[in-house]
Design brief:
The chain has 10 helices and 12 strands. It has 341 residues and is an alpha+beta fold. β1 and β2 form a beta hairpin.
């Protein structure tokens, strides 16, 4: 696809065009908690014109994956604004990279993949802006470093930028593939995922300073609902048609009596896990790591295993993790709690 002339990284085009990831046939795909895709109508957008206006990012900008990337949600920065807002020293340093915009995780941050084939270097750039930018970045950096110090495979931070308007981090890429794309026999893959999660959960929780317990999460969920930050269009099929407050009310009536506290990732979907050829499991987007019930992670893992590989894989995952079977009530509770984040 011809996307027009490229220019210097610090020369934005006239006008701003919002990039919608996953554009296809006038619709965009949205990832839910279990990785299921739904279709919603996109804004009226002239795709060719939008791509031309975005092409100034870098001389070797790669748009080849635009059809398969996930949608960047409504609250996220325009992609061109995310890069142009970086300090000039950052923009100069990024000129040697081919830059590809990709999706995002729990936080409303722009995420870019950077590649320099000459130096065989691959990095990721995450850019936050807005009132919560500094807190989100600080949480991710602090918690990721905490996991790294305990032997968990996580990204290493190369460069940080934080001021009153913007927060950005440049980090290394982990080896491997997301589980749904791994070239590993399925039974072996399921066992390795269970072992990787069990390793994370074996870290002594008493040493962890970050609170992701049920009541801490419910308090944050209540605030998010009050501020109108929870979008019911993202809810899983079983919760379609419900208002966020209805899910919150149901959760408050069914809080588990006992929390089995471990160190959790807090957003353990397949999009935030990578597994290499040796079976080592790495974790990204660790800004919600902390002390929490192990079912906080088990619920999202079970949902993605079922969505990608089918329910017949769940017993093997449970046995490999060390459980004869999972508590269905707790799986349901934490799946619903995840809807509000």
């Amino acid at each position: 696809m011809e996307i027009g002339r490229t220019s210097r990284l610090d020369e934005p085009p006239n006008g701003a065009a919002m990039l919608l990831f996953g554009l296809r046939n006038g619709k965009v795909g949205v990832g839910g908690a279990a990785g299921r895709l739904r279709e919603i109508h996109a804004f009226e957008l002239n795709t060719r014109q939008a791509l031309r206006s975005m092409a100034w990012y870098a001389p070797r900008l790669d748009w080849s994956a635009i059809g398969s990337a996930r949608l960047v949600g409504a609250g996220v920065l325009m992609a061109q604004d995310a890069l142009s807002a970086l300090p000039e020293s950052w923009r100069r340093a990024l000129r040697r990279f081919a830059i590809k915009p990709i999706g995002h995780g729990m936080s409303d941050a722009n995420l870019f993949r950077l590649r320099d084939d000459v130096r065989a270097e691959r990095l990721y750039l995450k850019v936050h802006r807005g009132e919560a930018a500094q807190t989100e970045l600080r949480n991710e950096v602090e918690r990721t470093k905490w996991l790294a110090a305990r032997g968990i495979m996580v990204p290493r931070f190369v460069r940080l930028c934080e001021d009153s308007l913007l927060a950005a981090v440049l980090m290394t890429a982990l080896p491997g593939r997301h589980p749904q794309h791994a070239h590993i026999p399925l039974p072996e893959l399921i066992r390795q995922l269970a072992e990787g999660l069990r390793k994370l959960h074996s870290i002594p929780a008493s040493d962890c300073p970050f609170d992701e317990t049920v009541w801490a999460r419910l308090a944050r969920a209540r605030s998010a609902i009050a501020e109108g930050l929870v979008d019911p269009d993202y809810f899983s099929e079983r919760n379609q048609g419900l208002a966020p407050q209805a899910i919150y009310t149901r959760l408050m009536r069914t809080v588990p009596e006992h929390e089995d506290i471990v160190v959790v990732h807090g957003d353990a979907t397949f999009d935030n896990l990578l597994i290499d050829d040796a079976g080592n499991v790495g974790f990204i987007d660790c800004g919600h790591t902390g002390r929490g019930d192990r079912y906080l992670d088990l619920a999202t893992m079970v949902a993605d295993i079922e969505a990608y590989f089918g329910p017949d894989c769940i017993p093997l995952f449970a046995r490999s993790y060390g459980h004869a079977a999972f508590d269905e009530r707790k799986l349901g509770f934490f799946t619903d709690l995840y809807e509000l984040f």
